[in-house]
Design goal:
With 272 residues, the chain is of the alpha+beta class. The chain folds into two domains: 30 residues, no CATH class; 221 residues, Muramoyl-pentapeptide Carboxypeptidase, domain 2. Strands 2, 4, 5, 6, 9 and 10 form a six-stranded mixed sheet that branches. A two-stranded antiparallel sheet has the order 1-3. The protein has a two-stranded antiparallel sheet with strand order 7-8. A hairpin with a 4-residue loop joins strand 7 and strand 8. Helix 4 packs across helix 7. The longest helix has 16 residues. It is globular, with a radius of gyration of 23 Å.
Amino acid sequence: MKKTMLVKTIGTVLLSAGVWAGAYDLPEATPLPLNTVMAARSLNAADSQGFVNLAEAVPEVILEVRYYSTYNFVGDRIDGYKEPCLLLTREAAAALKEVAADLMGQGYRLKIYDAYRPQMAVDNFVRWAKDLDDTRMKAHFYPAEPKDTLFDKGYIALHSGHSRGSTLDLTLFDMKTEKEVDMGGTFDHFGVESHPDWCGNPDTGEYTGDYPGSAEPKDGQINETQFKNRQILREAMLRHGFKPLDTEWWHFTLKDEPYPDTYFTFPSQRLN
């Protein structure tokens, strides 16, 4: 180590410990950047300190925690969902609060189906997908998809971006009608009808009514109003720092997610 580097290192340690080092004419210690501290913390997949209770951080939203209930594509409460609450990283929650304010100005509230998803929940999905005889919820969530194709088509995978803590599944709630907005399809529907480019161009907002490629869905096209409703949600999320998924109109991830390489394992339950 060079002499100058050694002196600076010693000086930083002395100053950090509260030792007077004026005789050495050493520079003041510089605190570690917050992102460095958070990155170090992210190495512990069982650490929930970077997360917040979504209902407290963004009280304007409505929660419908599908994986705590039995109304989901599995048909059971999912492993790891200990309470009917949702968690999110602090950074994603701050961005979502901006989205909520934006949409409330347009007459909508956000309804959240899922946010942080513990790895044990993803493991539950994998076990379910391998059991080809369990098709209890097929009519509701994957009517046109054979269950043995769910891995190949990417509907089920060994890991999920949700486990990194900055991804959400959500829709719009109309404050005037007091009903969910008609998106032309339900959350967690496995099929091409759930793609953002179904019957339109999500980048330009143009409704076409066309099917991409040669796809022929079970339920046909969505109408222009339904496509525009999807666009209202999408455009608000993109304005405030989220990025979409090209296969699910309801799925968004914070672009600058704080833990891009960590799949957390702690259960989804209220944080103290």
